[in-house]
Amino acid sequence: MNSDRSISERIVTVFGGTGFLGRRIVRRLLEKDFTVRAVSRHPDQVAARFSSDTRAPEAVRADILDPASVALAVAGSKTVVNAVSLYVEHGNRTFERVHVTAAADLAAASRNSSVEQFIHISGIGSDPRSESSYIRARGRGEQAVASTFPGVIIRPSVMTGPDDTFLTTLVRLIRVLPVYPLFGNGGTRLQPVYVGDVAEAIGHLIDRNGAGGSSIFEFGGPRVFTYEELVRDIARQLDVKIRPLPIPFEVWNVLARVAEFLPAVPLTRNQIDLMRHDNVAALDLPGLKELDIEPHNIDEVIRAIAQANK
Ligand SMILES: NC(=O)c1ccc[n+]([C@@H]2O[C@H](COP(=O)([O-])OP(=O)(O)OC[C@H]3O[C@@H](n4cnc5c(N)ncnc54)[C@H](OP(=O)(O)O)[C@@H]3O)[C@@H](O)[C@H]2O)c1
C-alpha cells in the first residue's frame, strides 16, 4: 500500500485531460491525492474546465502529433494515460495518424522516459481487420501500443453522463420527433456505461499501480439494451409516445457524409460503423466487477440528462 506521501509524489499525466472521460480521470486522481498533469493543445482550456473545482491539475501544453512536446509532457511521470480522441478526420489528423502512429509514439516516449504504467483508452469492438477505417485504426492502435509498452488497454462501451453527446442527443430528439429513426432495424445491442464508473475504474488501476502486467479491460453498464429498447426506454421515462422507424445503414452513411461538413458535426460515419455491430463487454475479459465497481443504473443518468435538458 502506498503512503499518502508517495502517492502525492506520483505524477500521472493524462493526455486528453480536458475531454469527456479525461477530465473525470483527472478529477478522480486529484481526489486520490496524485499529482496530475492534464495535457491539452490549449492549456487555457484546462484552467477553464477545472475552474469550479477545489483542486486543479497542472496544465501542460502538448500535441500528441508533436514528439518534442510529448517527450516534455511525459518526463518524470510514473503513469501516462492516453485518452485522446479523434472522431472526424481533418487534413493530417487521420485515424491512422492519431490512433495508431501517435498512440505508439506516446507509448515509446513513455517507455524511454521510464514511465512505470501506461493506460491506453480504446473502445469495445476495436478490430485491426475491420472494413471501417475508424474501427481498424482503433484495433491497430491497440496492437501498436501493446507491442511498444505492454500496459493496460481500456475498452469502454458507449459512455454516458450529464454532458454526453449520446444520451443527450437521444433525449432531445425523442422529445421532438414523432417518428424516431433507428440505425438499421434497431437491433444492435449496446451496454451504455456511466463515464464516472470508467474514470473510477482507471483510478483504481492507477492506485493499485497496474493490473498484473499487460491486460485488456472491457467496461459496460449494468444493462444490455438493443438500440430500439433504449429509445423506447427513454421515451417511456420522458412520457413521450414515439414510433420507431427502421432506416437502412446505407441511408445513414449518406447522411453522415453530409453531416461531417457541418461545423458542429451531429453524426459521423464512424458512429454509423460502430452501430452496425453489438457493443457489449466480453464475458471472458475483466471489467468493472473485477475492480469492485458497481456500475450506475443508466435510468438515473437518463433522468439527470432529461432534467438538465428540459
Ligand atoms: N465517448 C464515448 O462514448 C467513448 C466510448 C468508447 C471509447 N471512447 C474513447 O475514449 C477516449 C476519450 O474519448 P472522449 O469522448 O472523452 O473524447 P473527447 O471528449 O472528444 O476529448 C478528446 C480529448 O483529446 C484531446 N486531443 C485531441 N487531439 C489531440 C492532440 N492532437 N493532441 C493532444 N490532445 C488531443 C483533446 O484535448 P484538447 O482539444 O484540449 O487539446 C480532448 O481532451 C477516446 O479514445 C475515445 O475513442 C469514447
UniProtKB/TrEMBL annotation:
- Stored SUPFAM superfamilies: NAD(P)-binding Rossmann-fold domains (SSF51735)
Q: Name one GO molecular function term.
A: protein-containing complex binding
InterPro entries the record matches:
ComplexI_NDUFA9_subunit, NAD(P)-bd_dom, NAD(P)-bd_dom_sf
Q: Which Pfam families match?
A: NAD_binding_10 (PF13460)
Hey, what's the signal peptide range on this chain? Answer: none
Q: Which domain of life is it from?
A: Bacteria
**Any idea where the NAD(P)-binding domain is?**
16-161
- The protein here is known as Epimerase
> Which organism encodes this protein?
Phyllobacterium brassicacearum
